[in-house]
Amino acid sequence: MRMVRIRPKLVAVLALTGAAALGVTSQAVADPNPNNHGSAPQWIQLNTGYHARVFGDATQNHPTSTLLSNGDYVWADCWVAGDNVGNAGNVWYHTTYVYQYGQVTGVGSSWTFAPFVDGAGAFHAVPGVPHC
Hints:
Blueprint: H1 8-22, H2 27-30, E1 42-45, E2 52-55, E3 63-68, E4 73-81, E5 91-100, E6 103-113, H3 114-118, H4 121-124
Antiparallel strand pairs: 1-4, 2-3, 2-6, 4-5, 5-6
């Protein structure tokens, strides 16, 4: 029986090739906008079925009294990686205005948890919301 010596780099290349052929990807590879280069701020409508609270930073430590529901909007000018919330991720939209009850209200320099706003859709979109 003949022994074949396989190099570690070759194994890694074969593993990646096989994973690609099988459609197995990591989040970074599956992300349609892997560099997360956005084009401009935008209004984003809440559409997830969750209520999204406005926070004073990209954590859950400084909630404001503003609670948003489906159909409301946030003005997101950029995103950051902040606190993880459960298994939903860690993307937060910088939010300066909200639209609810038929009017636009300034909320200062605030943050909303992207997965509860639009499933982080504007983060993944090409082009999407830019990184802060």
